[in-house]
């Protein structure tokens, strides 16, 4: 038996046949994604402070070497900010101020430190369930780092907080619109997959040529569809007989 090749017209016919199921699956995916986004996922807020750490410039000739040294030390500063030597004091200070935070390990997960290429400025970002908590965490972290780094590393002479963390009431996650679009796309894919699966597993005979050409069997006859409206007791056009007699 020759391999069956499905044409583009057949693809559209299958999609059209199961269009209701595809629409239902798409809408269900969007509704499910919206429910998880709004009811299950907790919003997260961020606040960012910018810190500059460099060395005192003694001579003009040594400025370039000092700059390269500062850039190489950025990764070290990043590690120090997220360690207990800084976050332990941050946690204690926040608790004294009435800010509820988790352990130092939890703080380390909620704090990220980044910097642009060849930049001595570090961006310290804190993420929390509350925008006020995020701002408190990042500002306290920057302050504790500024006070401790000069004693931890003697060559870090100048530590400047360029900008403190501000209050940002716009949640950075979850990304609601993106999640809903992903849910709709997933539902659409599942609906299309279901349509083709139903079509491939459907073994009913849809064309008389399947019997004569594929199965090579004789076609004895066909039965046409009968409208349900014509399936009535009696014959259409005949008046029913009643029990009244004529005189």
Structure write-up:
With 247 residues, the chain is of the alpha+beta class. It has nine helices and four strands, in the order H-H-E-H-H-H-H-E-E-H-E-H-H. The chain has helices at 8-17, 19-40, 63-72, 74-81, 84-96, 104-110, 131-152, 176-201, 208-214, and strands at residues 45-54, 111-114, 121-128, 158-163. The chain has a four-stranded antiparallel beta sheet. The protein is elongated, with a radius of gyration of 36 Å. Residues 241-247 have low confidence and may be disordered.
How would you describe this structure in keywords?
247 residues, alpha+beta, four-stranded antiparallel β-sheet, 9 helices, 4 strands, 11% strand, elongated, disordered C terminus, LPS_length_determ_N
Question: What's this model, at a glance?
Answer:
With 247 residues, the protein is an alpha+beta fold. Helices cover 51% and strands 11% of the residues.
């Amino acid at each position: 038996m020759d391999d069956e090749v499905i044409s583009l017209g057949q693809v559209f016919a299958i999609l059209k046949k199961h269009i209701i199921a595809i629409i239902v699956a798409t809408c269900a995916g969007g509704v499910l994604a919206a429910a998880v986004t709004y009811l299950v996922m907790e919003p997260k807020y961020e606040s960012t402070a910018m810190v500059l750490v460099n060395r005192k410039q003694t001579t003009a000739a040594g400025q370039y070497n000092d700059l390269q040294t500062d850039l190489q030390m950025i990764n070290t500063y990043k590690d120090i900010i997220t360690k207990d030597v800084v976050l332990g004091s941050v946690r204690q200070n926040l608790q004294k101020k009435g800010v509820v935070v988790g352990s130092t390990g939890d703080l380390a997960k909620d704090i990220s430190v980044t910097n642009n290429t060849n930049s001595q400025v570090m961006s310290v970002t804190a993420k929390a369930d509350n925008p006020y908590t995020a701002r408190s965490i990042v500002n306290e972290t920057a302050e504790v780092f500024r006070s401790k780094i000069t004693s931890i590393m003697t060559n870090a002479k100048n530590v400047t907080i360029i900008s403190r963390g501000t209050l940002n009431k716009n949640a950075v996650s979850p990304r609601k619109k993106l999640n809903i679009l992903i849910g709709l796309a997933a539902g659409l894919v599942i609906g299309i997959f279901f349509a083709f699966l139903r079509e491939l597993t459907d073994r009913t005979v849809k064309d008389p040529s399947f019997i004569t050409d594929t199965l090579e069997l004789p076609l004895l006859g066909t039965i046409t569809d009968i409208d349900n409206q014509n399936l009535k007791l009696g014959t259409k056009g005949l008046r029913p007989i009643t029990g009244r007699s004529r005189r």
